[in-house]
Structures are given as structure tokens and as C-alpha cells.
Amino acid sequence: MHKVYVALLDGHLEAAHGRIEAPLGRDPRRRQRMAVVPGGREAITEYRLLASFAGGDYSLVEAEPKTGAPTRSASTLPRSAIRW
Q1: Which among 13, 16, 32, 83 is most buried, taking Cβ atoms within 10 Å?
Q2: Residues near 40 by beta carbon (within 8 Å), at least 6 away in sequence
Q3: Global pTM?
Q4: What is the phi/psi pair of residue 56, to 5°?
Q5: Cα separation of 26 and 71, whole Å?
Q6: Would you call 29 helix, strand, or coil by DSSP?
Q7: Do residues 67 and 42 lie in contact, with contact meaning Cβ atoms separated by under 8 Å?
Q8: Looking at residues 8-32, what average pLDDT do you find?
Q9: Is the dihedral of CA 71, 32, 18, 63 positive or negative?
Q10: How far, in Å, CA of 31 to CA of 17, rounded?
């Protein structure tokens, strides 16, 4: 199955496209969420910047998980950039 997600990020991405490789597991503070954690399962997500808004304060991206469970893959986007 091929899945692609669209996400609105709070922040500016330097690169127009890229690949994020990070270990994912349960967020120790909010167990219902997944987060980048030491010792987590390796996950790879490729992203592409679609648009920037408000002078670069927000970024619209397309994210495509390459490994790991799709429900965890959004967690590989920069934590400071994800707006849930």
C-alpha cells in the first residue's frame, strides 16, 4: 500500500525536499502519541515542501513514509514543526 500525507507545519523548512531517518516509539510524556525516542524502531519518511505561508511561519508538506508504520511516520517530521 502506498500512502502519502499532507501536513501543515508550524515553522519554516530549510530544504524544499528531504529524507528524515529517526527512531520512533511511544512518547514518554504522552503515551498515546508516537515520538522520536532513543531505542525506538527505525523509521524513514521523505518529504516535499508544497508551499509556505505567513512569511515562512507555516509550511505545507507532502510526507511519504518509506519504513515504519504509517501512523508513526508523521512523528519523524521535526518536532518543533508539527502542529497537531
Answers
A1: 13
A2: 22, 23, 24, 25
A3: 0.68
A4: 95, 5
A5: 12
A6: coil
A7: yes
A8: 91
A9: positive
A10: 30
The three-class DSSP label of residue 33 is coil
Cell of 15: 530544504
Cα–Cα distance for residue pair 71/35, rounded to 1 Å = 11
Structural domains of the chain in order of their starting residue, each with its CATH number: 5-76 (3.30.2350.10)
- Tell me the H-state helices in the chain: 70-73
Cell numbers at 64, concatenated: 511519504
% helix, strand, coil for the chain, step of 5: 10, 50, 40
Q: In whole angstroms, what is the distance from residue 5 CA to residue 63 CA?
A: 5
